[in-house]
Amino acid sequence: MVNYIVSGLERSGTSMMMQILYLGGMKVAFDEKRKPDEHNPRGYFELEGGKIINRLMKGEFPMEKYEGMVIKITSFGLRYLPRGFRYKIIYMRRDMEEIFASMEKMSGKPLSEEEKIAFVKLNEYALSLLERRRDVDYITVWYNKVLENPRREIERVNDFLGRILDVDSAVKAVDPSLYRSRVEVNE
Amino acid sequence: MADEKEKKYTTVSIPTPLFRKIEERIKGTGFTSVSSYVTYVLREIIAEDEEDEEPFSKDDEERVKERLRALGYLD
């Protein structure tokens, strides 16, 4: 049995990927603790109201309950992924400037340069962790490439998963109108 | 609005041929602009320097945790 995980930094498109997998017919585990809002109008698709990391850190998350299902664990939580399971992980990537703009908008607080560097390091650290762990098989997916060509990227994800998605249905999860944190920089 | 942007960003000059090369290089990647790419690379260089001491330090962890709390991902 495999545990499927959608990961990536917060605001990197993890909720969009969860919705893709949900509409594509996978068993997706989430609860309604955190309601859809202006930052994620289609919902967060999270367990524990997004605070799954707390339980992972304490070693209390019942991973065995979610075998064969998809759960969302953002980058920081990957450090605490329990041993003894087989994982297939879809790791979302996005232009970091857009991630930072979106985080600032959501928390209402600007990020310091030190914080930005810490998140760049966390991203690299999480990717190196996935590379090192033998119980992990992973794929990286860029958020804006999904928006550019949903079918192509979802087909790629489907290949990774072993052709189990209904791609025609899954592409309906992609809504380019929700791509709002574009960073405009003079060039 | 323009003032706000001026405070957040400043201009660094790079040779135009280099700019064009980067423009070509980021085509088909997830980077949406040359500026974003260059900023990312520079931050990576700074992060790598710091990583010589520790890959993801206690200070980094605290910074990330504080932001995750503000975003509602941690208690």
Question: What can you see in these coordinates?
Answer:
The complex is a heterodimer of chains A (187) and B (75). A four-stranded parallel beta sheet of chain A has the order 2-1-3-4, sandwiched between helices. Chain A has helices spanning 14-23, 52-57, 75-78, 96-107, 113-132, 143-148, 150-161, 167-170; strands spanning 3-8, 70-72, 87-93, 136-142. Chain A is 40% helix and 12% strand. Chain B has one domain. Chain B contains four helices and no strands. The termini of chain B are far apart. The A-B interface holds A 10-11, 34, 49-51, 53-54, 74, 76, 93-98, 103, 106-107, 109, 111-112, 114-122, 124-125, 128, 142-145, 182-187 and B 5, 9, 11, 28-36, 39-40, 43-44, 46-47, 50-51, 55-56, 59-61, 63-68, 70-75.
**Major pleated sheet of chain A:** 4 strands, parallel
Query: What fraction of residues of chain A sit in β-strands?
Result: 5-15%
Count up the helices of chain A. Answer: 8
Distance between the ends of chain B:
34 Å
Order of helices and strands of chain A: EHHEHEHHEHHH
What does the radius of gyration of chain A come to? 16 Å
What's the rounded overall pLDDT mean of chain A?
89
List keywords for this structure.
heterodimer, A: 187 residues, alpha/beta, Rossmann fold, four-stranded parallel β-sheet, 8 helices, 4 strands, 40% helix, B: 75 residues, mainly alpha, 4 helices, elongated
Task: Give a topology summary.
The complex is a heterodimer of chains A (187) and B (75).
Chain A: E1 3-8, H1 14-23, H2 52-57, E2 70-72, H3 75-78, E3 87-93, H4 96-107, H5 113-132, E4 136-142, H6 143-148, H7 150-161, H8 167-170
Parallel strand pairs in A: 1-2, 1-3, 3-4
Chain B: H1 2-8, H2 16-25, H3 34-51, H4 58-70
